[in-house]
Amino acid sequence: IELSLTSPMFEGLGPDAREFLGVIAFYPQGIDEKNLSWLFPSITNTNTILDTFHVLTLTYRSHGYIAMLAPLRDYLCPKDAKSSPLLCATKERYFTRLSIFVDPSNPGFEEARWIVSEDVNVEHLLDVLATTDANSEDIWDTIAYFMGHLYWHKPRQTVLRSKIEQLSDNHTSKPKC
Question: With 90 as the cut, is the pLDDT of residue 108 above it?
Answer without folding.
Answer: no
